[in-house]
Specification:
Blueprint (H helix, E strand, L loop, with lengths): L5 E4 L2 E4 L5 E6 L4 E7 L3 H19 L3 H17 L1 H12 L3 H25 L3 E4 L2 E7 L2 E5 L5 H15 L2 E5 L5 H13 L7 E3 L4 H10 L5 E5 L2 H13 L3 E5 L5 E4 L5 H13 L11 E5 L3 H15 L9 H16 L3 E4 L15 E6 L4 H4 L6 E7 L2 H8 L8 E4 L3 H8 L8 E2 L17 E2 L4 H6 L2 E7 L1
Parallel strand pairs: 7-8, 7-10, 8-9, 10-11, 12-13, 12-17, 13-16, 15-16, 17-18
Antiparallel strand pairs: 1-2, 3-4, 5-6, 6-20, 11-19, 14-15
Helix pairs in contact: 1-7, 2-4, 2-5, 2-6, 3-4, 3-6, 4-5, 9-10
Nicotinamide-adenine-dinucleotide binds next to helix 7 and helix 8.
């Protein structure tokens, strides 16, 4: 695994403007594995300048040619998928099979989907006596988190490039190595210089400089609601478009007619996946009173299966945060049925897969995003109460409904205030729009809906 000591700007690795570095730590053994430069506002300015200079040429490149470059990029990611998985395992701690299947597999699927969309999307349409042109919005400033580090970069870069935009990416501090690997892949794929640029650095310095830069036309941010709110305010003041993919507290609603064992097992797997560090994770399981204790027993067994198979959380601060939520759950009277604050290993930022029963909607652990392997099981007496609980948070990113009859599940899902709902364990679809209702965000990612965020319209009347 290679770490670059420069920034990928204007088609080359260039020395960073400042001397500071960020240490990258393996969360499994707490060892420093690499350093990358901590970008300054000057690096951001250079990168935005390169993206702006490259914009006219890339925006004028025919969509079929943009599609060809994206196909080449997807092919490089495929060729380097083992390296991608090993890098994410090293800097995020994800177990290798999960890193291979998801952290490498998902970005490949998304890059492929945008290679196709770039070739097939209607960048012009007729509306009565008008022709509407869908034009690239300009220079994109993308700020990404660490939890699915390559996926979140690709979910912004691929649609931006498909649209004809140029981009500067500021990846998360904890996971800059896979971002550097991605920059190498962009280079290998033959993208013109300046179309993609990477500035590693700290959020409040490099991230903020990017969000505030007057040369950026669209800020695309994925991360916490707290930072998203700040970025939204900055963009609003500059009358600049912003997309925000923020936190979640999604409900897994198990209706009385559901296949309980399946719903609980899939639900626990979903909540524990990526050590619970998934914004769309179903961290609240809602079960009818009549089947509540049975569900709790099944969840306890399912959580025990994860035992030592689960990876660590990303860093010491995140681990302390997750443990403080477990303490809060205990203090507020929830019943611990699996896991707890005791670490399953001596070294590394591990947290035991934890399940709480007797959680009520007013408890902190039922309201706030924990971002660790902690599942809350709540009880309801009728569907109206289930709906009140499901919709009773500030968030609305994802969710699930299980019922014996699909139509019954769909009827419930229609009433949920959330951006995505899986019906009876529905499969992931990389073309389906992903994004939040309420404080889970603004805008959508993936598929044609994600592409449209990077386009602006011009209408010609005849
Ligand atoms: P974070 O908000 O702390 O950081 C996200 C990114 O923002 C990082 O690159 C960071 O360096 C940068 N940043 C931090 N402060 C900044 C500032 N003042 N100005 C500009 N940039 C700044 O979030 P995190 O802890 O890295 O990620 C976890 C959060 O991300 C969770 O809340 C999770 O729900 C959310 N998330 C949401 C989605 C989604 O699609 N909705 C996906 C993944 C993660």
């Amino acid at each position: 695994m290679k770490a670059h000591d420069g920034m990928y700007i204007d088609g080359d690795w260039r020395p960073a403007a400042g001397p500071d570095v960020i240490e990258v730590v393996n969360p499994v053994d707490e060892q420093v594995i690499a350093t990358v430069p901590a970008g300054t506002p000057q690096d951001v300015d250079t990168a935005v300048g390169a993206a702006r200079a490259a914009l006219p040429g890339w925006a004028a490149t025919p969509p079929a040619e943009r599609a060809a470059r994206l196909t080449a990029l997807r092919d490089v990611l495929v060729a380097r998928k083992d390296e991608i998985a090993e890098t994410v395992t090293a800097e995020l701690g994800a177990p290798l099979p999960f890193a291979q299947a998801v952290h490498a597999g998902l970005p490949i699927a998304v890059a492929g989907s945008y290679a196709e969309l770039a070739a097939t999307h209607a960048f012009e349409e007729k509306v009565g006596n008008s022709t509407v042109l869908h034009e690239p919005i300009g220079v994109v400033g993308a700020i990404t988190p660490w939890n699915y580090p390559l996926h979140q970069i690709v979910a912004k870069v691929a649609p931006a490039l498909a649209a004809g935009c140029t981009i500067v990416v500021k990846p998360a501090e904890d996971t800059p190595l896979v971002a550097q690997l991605f920059a190498e892949a962009v280079h290998e794929a033959g993208l013109p210089a300046g179309v993609f640029n990477l500035v590693t650095g700290l959020g409040p310095i490099a991230g903020q400089a990017l969000a505030e830069h007057p040369g950026v036309d669209l800020v695309s941010f994925t991360g916490s609601t707290a930072v998203g709110r700040q970025i939204g305010a900055t963009a609003g003041a500059a009358v600049k478009k912003v997309t925000l993919e923020l936190g979640g507290k999604s409900a897994n609603v198990i209706l009385p007619s559901a296949d309980l064992a399946k719903a609980v097992n899939v639900g626990v797997a979903n909540a524990m996946s990526n050590s619970g560090q998934t914004c769309s994770a179903w961290t609240r399981m809602l079960v009818h009173t009549s089947r509540y204790e049975e569900a709790v027993g099944l969840a306890r067994e399912a959580a025990a299966k994860y035992g030592d198979r689960i990876g660590p959380v990303v860093n010491a601060k995140q681990r302390a945060r997750v443990l403080s939520y477990i303490d809060k759950g205990l203090a507020e009277g929830a019943r611990l049925v699996a896991g707890g604050t005791e670490s399953p290993r001596e070294q590394g930022y591990f947290v035991s897969p934890t399940v709480f029963a007797d959680v009520t909607s007013d408890m902190t652990i039922a309201q706030e995003e924990i971002f660790g392997p902690v599942l809350s099981i709540l009880r309801y007496d009728d569907e109206e109460e289930a709906l009140r609980i499901a919709n009773g948070t500030l968030y609305g990113l994802a969710g699930a409904v299980w019922a014996g009859d699909e139509a019954e599940a769909v009827a419930f899902a229609r009433r949920m205030d959330t951006g995505q709902v899986d019906i009876n364990g529905g499969r992931f679809n990389p073309l389906a729009p992903f994004g939040g209702y309420k404080q889970s965000g603004v805008g959508r990612e993936l598929g044609a809906h994600g592409l449209s965020e990077y386009l602006q319209t011009k209408s010609l009347q005849f």
